TrEMBL record:
Protein role: Subunit delta, of the mitochondrial membrane ATP synthase complex (F(1)F(0) ATP synthase or Complex V) that produces ATP from ADP in the presence of a proton gradient across the membrane which is generated by electron transport complexes of the respiratory chain. ATP synthase complex consist of a soluble F(1) head domain - the catalytic core - and a membrane F(1) domain - the membrane proton channel. These two domains are linked by a central stalk rotating inside the F(1) region and a stationary peripheral stalk.
Oligomeric form and interacting partners: Component of the ATP synthase complex composed at least of ATP5F1A/subunit alpha, ATP5F1B/subunit beta, ATP5MC1/subunit c (homooctomer), MT-ATP6/subunit a, MT-ATP8/subunit 8, ATP5ME/subunit e, ATP5MF/subunit f, ATP5MG/subunit g, ATP5MK/subunit k, ATP5MJ/subunit j, ATP5F1C/subunit gamma, ATP5F1D/subunit delta, ATP5F1E/subunit epsilon, ATP5PF/subunit F6, ATP5PB/subunit b, ATP5PD/subunit d, ATP5PO/subunit OSCP.
Name of the protein described by the UniProt record: ATP synthase F(1) complex subunit delta, mitochondrial
The entry's keywords: Acetylation, ATP synthesis, CF(1), Hydrogen ion transport, Ion transport, Membrane, Mitochondrion, Mitochondrion inner membrane, Transit peptide, Transport
HAMAP family in UniProt: ATP_synth_epsil_bac
Keyword Transit peptide tagged: yes
Domain ATP synthase F1 complex delta/epsilon subunit N-terminal: 32-111
Domain F1F0-ATP synthase delta subunit C-terminal as annotated: residue spans: 117-158
Keyword Acetylation carried by entry: yes
Location of this chain's protein in the cell: Mitochondrion inner membrane
Chief location: mitochondrion
Similarity annotation: Belongs to the ATPase epsilon chain family.
Superkingdom of the source species: Eukaryota
Amino acid sequence: MALAFRGALRSVARRLQVRSYADAPKGDEMALTFAAGNKVFYDKKVVKQVDVPSMSGAFGILPKHVPTLAVLRPGIVTVTENDGKVSKIFVSSGTVTVNDDSSVQVLAEEAHPLENLDRGAAQEALSKAQSELSSAGNEKAKAQAAIAVEVAEEIVKAASG
């Protein structure tokens, strides 16, 4: 009896674990919510594509993308709207969630449009972070400085074009 129960349970579990493409609610539409502590960039707006930098590598999201949860790394999120307009927004960190209904949520710690980035200020921040990293006295200070260096390097890259 217990053996038959385990076999049935495994069969059900296998069916639940099957990954497939999502069914979009209205054809090939994808609703994007993109927010940070400083601003809401998109609020359930239907877009064509979202490209994100994640800790496991950058990837693009289209309608019917397989459900995903990823951690954002510092870099540029590119949003291609249905009319072809492209927005590029720098994010420091955060998460991206792709749901089975083709909705996407990008939640960033901080986010700023590329046109708002100041390359000179980014260079100064990078120099300061590198200095703090070299003079860090303990592991916690080193880790915090290393994160600041990574973010500053990505801001400099983004601000440079």
